[in-house]
Amino acid sequence: MRFEKEIEILNSKEKVWAFLWDVDRFITCVPGCKEAKTVEAGKSYTAMMVEKVGPFRVEFPMGIEVLESQAMSHIKAQASGSDSRVGSRLKVEIDVRMKEEGEKTHLSLGVTVDILGKLATLGHSIIKRKADLVMEEFAQAIKNRLEGVS
Amino acid sequence: MLKRFRLEEPESVKDASDFLARHGESARVYAGGTELLLVMKEGLIQYERLINIKNIAGLDEVKLDDGVIHLGALATHCKLASSTLLQERLPAFVRMEKNVANIRVREVGTLGGNLSFAEPHADPGTVLMVLGAKLVAGKSSSRREIPVEKFFVDAYETCLEADEILTGIRVPLLPSHSAVAYLKFGYLERPSVGVALFLAVDGGGKSIADARIAVGCVGPAPKRIEEAESLLKGKGFDEASRLISKAGEIAGDASQAISDLHGSQDYKEHIVQVLLKRAFHQAYGQCQPGGKGQGGLHG
Q1: pTM of the model
Q2: Cα distances (Å, whole numbers) of residue B188 to A34, B159, B180, B193
Q3: A119 near B CB under 8 A
Q4: For the segment B244-272, what is each residue's pLDDT rounded down to a tens digit?
Q5: Which residues of chain A neighbour B25 with C-beta distances below 8 Å?
Q6: Which of these CATH numbers, 3.40.525.10, 3.30.465.10, 3.40.50.620, 3.40.50.300, describes B62-172?
Q7: Are the CB atoms for B185 and B174 separated by under 8 Å?
Q8: What is the topology classification, in CATH, of domain B178-290?
Q9: Fewest 10 Å CB contacts: which of A24, A35, A129, B88?
Q10: ipTM of the assembly?
């Protein structure tokens, strides 16, 4: 499943870039992310993703690798993890591009999500809807944090 | 394979509700089990306790009660499909029940279980929505009625409180010169699109006195589309016939269709439009004086 999202943030490119690398602040914007740790700054991280659809609950301990990064311009990362309890695997590829437009910074997110295993039996549409909601909440949260709304 | 769980067998709604209150998310109500046991076998969900409510007397009744049809939550799809009362009063509902899933599911699956599990690709919620049904939820100390429109919150989510149990469904009798049509489309066992329409015509059968439209299976939960309804209400047949495509377009747009293996969003929206048009002509024909109407014959 491929998702794309454009976010306009009323803040400088430098501030946005710094925020993206501030793990503790950044994960507060990622719905379902319960904890994250830096393994090697700028290269490798771990995080626990917890999501719920109705009575279904999944927990994915994720390993995140930064594949490419160019200061103030783009980040490409890959995350993957398994929930052995429900026998499912989650793989996410994230491509973040940013550019400054006057007083605003424009973030373009391209996210590819693959879910394998029993969780997929819940139905593609339900998973897609959940992922859409997560993207929307993330976009709103990051905007709020960087624009000082909350 | 199913993991071990404890089976509780309360004999009253109060006892069942008390079990739910005591055990919280580690317990779940078990009725037909056709959906619940599947996901438990798959290991997608585990409960320490299942609360079997099938021993609670009177929850499977189908009866006419003070001018309202009462469907017990534990009535199976087969029982509903073969009910003489429903065949007479709600033939569209019976037709829908006859086509729920497959014979194995219809034999043990219950209407209450179907609604409470809130699987998005299910038929009954959509039809009950246009029938103006209310769902009866009970717990230890109280009982409330919930309009179907407010019952479904999201995929697999209802507005039932943690210790509430769906005990029945109350369906008002159809008025004179009215009919319901439910059409669905799908190439897998679960439908991809379901469209329900309630139509009432005036005494002479020339204009649309009332209309209710609901779309299901395309998105997270069935949805009533009042904006499309208002386009038809009060219109003469010819004008309503011209507007039905527009109403279908509105219904498709508002249905929250999601692209998936059953079809793209655009495709599903288009099918909504096609099915609504067919449902309109079917229902209009049935609710004419002398037609094979439901309310027309028995309202």
Answers
A1: 0.87
A2: 37, 29, 25, 11
A3: yes
A4: 999 999 999 999 998 877 888 999 999 99
A5: 55
A6: 3.30.465.10
A7: no
A8: Enolase-like; domain 1 (3.30.390)
A9: A24
A10: 0.72
